[in-house]
Amino acid sequence: MLSKETLERYRRMTAGQRLKLVLQAIDENEPYLLKGKPDVVNRRFQLLERENLARNENILKGLALSEVGNGKTS
Question: Can you give the pTM of this predicted structure?
Fold first, then answer.
């Protein structure tokens, strides 16, 4: 969990500044994605897939709730 100060600092950043941070993190960490035994690499990617699916599901639930709260229905 990020501290309140860190979250506030991110909120004050421009989209370009946040993108720069993301790209920097990718550059720094990408080489390690494929390091290790094949079963370890596979588990790593399975974990990423599960996390992405859960995040997408939460986004869809939030969008559905916001549409209901705004009086919109499908």
Answer: 0.62
Domain total of the chain: 2
Q: Does residue 24 sit in the same domain as residue 43? A: no
| pLDDT tens per residue across span 18-55 | 999 999 999 999 999 999 999 999 999 999 999 999 99
> Quick one: three-class SS letters along the chain?
CCCHHHHHHHHHCCHHHHHHHHHHHHHHHHHHHCCCCHHHHHHHHHHHHHHHHHHHHHHHHHHHHHHHHCCCCC
Which residues constitute the domain of residue 13? 1-33
Give 65: exposed, middle or buried? Use CB within 10 Å, 0-12, 13-18, 19+.
Answer: exposed
